[in-house]
């Protein structure tokens, strides 16, 4: 039995533990939280992540407990639709529900140890850093230059019981701020992001909610209604952090997955998806190949792809959160939206 230590029991860590062959690996998952979180917003599962969830064996439950994301629109702060977006088969599921399902897929042979890991001991056949954006594993083996950096932006998000009207769904892009609204199982998922001096470490949710309500007071009624319903118990507030670029995700017998390898801004909605794909890709390779070959193949498959997404997400965030040139930006989006609508109409006529 080959000993594998997985530092971090979040989405990436649980997905890897669920995919590794229990007949070949002695797996230990280290997680600082004694229990799974009960509060969290909806995550969009793109097709690649759905394929990975199918390999783990939980795609059916994810679809049954989640919801189909039909689409929405990029909107102005006044609610005008600038560019319509098709959901493209995306499935939305809450983070707590996804963690529950991943947790049930982990074999009973996996050892669980609760407690914060501040220092990586080593000694295992393989040590996996699945410990998020502020990864201890990454800093220990890639050095302090790899430490996460806080962005100027705060993320405030939550769920409320009311369901949004289809004409209100989407992202509202303002001046240096965005607000997102989407249907979720049993209500609505919402998120806001803007420049803030709160944090960068612990952010008090009541204070962040009050600032958010004031900041978006001029937005449409749908946005104000959601923020009026938002509560401390069903909301989260945190600084957005990102990791610097990495040219490789493994060193010796240590490897990074998920946010520990490529934490990105949330503008593309790909962070959780890529963490799941990382875990399943690595698990499959370890199940089939010697360690050196598996880690080399993992790097070939995942480094360039995820670093490109990290850059693309940052660029999207720069456009969405721009503090100037809003009329030009919104005008371009509107023109693109008209061309997309015209192309779709012509495609429908030709069928």
From TrEMBL:
It comes from the Bacteria. Transmembrane segments: none annotated. SUPFAM superfamilies: FAD/NAD(P)-binding domain. InterPro entries: FAD-bd, FAD-dep_Monooxygenase_BioMet, FAD/NAD-bd_sf. Keywords: Monooxygenase, Oxidoreductase. Gene3D superfamilies: FAD/NAD(P)-binding domain. Residues 126-309 form the FAD-binding domain. This is 2-polyprenyl-6-methoxyphenol hydroxylase-like FAD-dependent oxidoreductase. It comes from Paenarthrobacter histidinolovorans.
């Amino acid at each position: 039995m080959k000993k594998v230590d997985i530092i971090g029991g979040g989405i990436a860590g649980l997905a890897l533990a669920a995919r590794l062959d229990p007949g070949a690996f002695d797996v230990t998952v280290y997680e600082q939280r004694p229990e799974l979180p009960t509060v969290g917003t909806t995550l969009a599962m793109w097709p690649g992540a759905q394929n990975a969830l199918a390999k783990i064996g939980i795609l059916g439950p994810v679809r049954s407990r989640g919801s189909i994301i039909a689409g929405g629109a990029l909107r102005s702060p006044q609610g005008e639709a600038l560019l319509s977006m098709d959901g493209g088969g995306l499935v939305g599921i809450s983070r707590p529900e996804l963690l529950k399902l991943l947790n049930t897929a982990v074999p009973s042979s996996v050892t669980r140890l609760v407690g914060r890991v501040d220092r990586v001991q080593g000694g295992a056949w393989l040590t996996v850093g699945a410990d998020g954006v502020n990864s201890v594993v990454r800093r220990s083996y890639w050095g302090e230059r790899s430490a996460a950096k806080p962005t100027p932006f705060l993320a405030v998000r939550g769920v409320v019981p009311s369901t949004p009207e289809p004409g209100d769904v989407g992202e509202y892009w303002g001046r240096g701020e965005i607000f997102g609204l989407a249907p979720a199982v049993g209500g609505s998922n919402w998120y806001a992001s803007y420049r803030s001096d709160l944090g960068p470490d612990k952010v008090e949710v009541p204070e962040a909610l009050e600032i958010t309500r004031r900041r978006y007071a001029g937005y449409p009624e749908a946005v104000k209604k959601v923020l009026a319903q938002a509560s401390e118990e069903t909301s989260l507030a945190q600084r957005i952090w990102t990791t610097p670029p990495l040219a490789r995700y493994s060193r010796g017998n240590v490897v990074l997955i998920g946010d520990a390898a490529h934490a990105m801004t949330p503008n593309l909605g790909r962070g959780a998806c890529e963490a799941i794909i990382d875990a399943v890709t690595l698990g499959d390779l370890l199940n089939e190949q010697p360690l050196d070959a598996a880690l080399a193949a993992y790097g070939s498959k995942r480094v360039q792809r995820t670093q490109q997404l990290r850059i693309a997400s940052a660029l999207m965030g720069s456009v969405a959160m721009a503090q100037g040139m809003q009329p030009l930006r919104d005008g371009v989006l509107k023109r693109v939206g008209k061309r997309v609508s015209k192309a779709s109409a012509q495609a429908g006529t030709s069928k």
